[in-house]
Design a protein that fits this description.
- This protein has about 160 residues and is α+β, with helices and mostly antiparallel strands.
- It has 4 helices and 6 strands.
- It has a 6-stranded mixed beta sheet with strand order 2-1-6-5-4-3.
């Protein structure tokens, strides 16, 4: 086993722990801890396209969600892959889901695919970027396509004209 392989295994384990800690922070409704998993200047893109910048804003915005709409929810997820384009940077692909309050399993309509960029800061890893997209394949026959197309139409009717972020 080479030194590089051992280093990548250690770094991969730290990144997996970082991801698990992020899930745990969500489950405790702890916006401060959740935000602490990100760099000071992190970029965070939520499933709806909302972009949040910086650790403090990520912490504050999530605490508001945890205190209201997402109170009592739990985040689930699984890392699909970790690639190291450089010694201090990792590209992470993961799945995500939300177990709503009073439920025992993630809501299928909340299934997500995520791309995260982790960076080394000293001996620690933090996320510098996070992009979350809901899983909404176009397939599924005519009915599936119709549902997919209708969501675009509904958005155009009710949300168009809002300022882009």
């Amino acid at each position: 086993m080479t030194h590089e392989t051992t280093t990548h295994q250690t770094d991969e384990a730290k990144i997996r722990t970082l991801f698990e800690d992020l899930l745990g922070d969500w489950g405790r409704g702890d916006g401060e801890a959740y935000g602490s998993r990100f760099t000071e200047d992190a970029d965070y893109v939520a499933f709806d396209g909302t972009r949040t910048r910086g650790r403090r804003e990520i912490s504050a915005s999530h605490q508001q969600l945890f205190d209201k709409f997402l109170q009592g929810t739990r985040l689930t997820g699984r890392i699909l892959s970790i690639k190291f384009p450089g010694p201090d940077v990792a590209l992470v692909h993961a799945t995500g889901g939300t177990i709503m309050r009073g439920k025992t399993r993630p809501s299928p309509e909340r299934a997500s695919i995520q791309t995260l960029v982790a960076v080394r800061e000293g001996d620690e890893w933090r996320f510098a970027a996070f992009h979350n997209s809901r899983v909404r394949p176009i397939g599924g026959g005519p009915a599936g396509f119709l549902i997919w197309a209708m969501t675009d139409k509904l958005w155009r009717i009710f949300a168009s004209g809002k300022e882009d972020a």
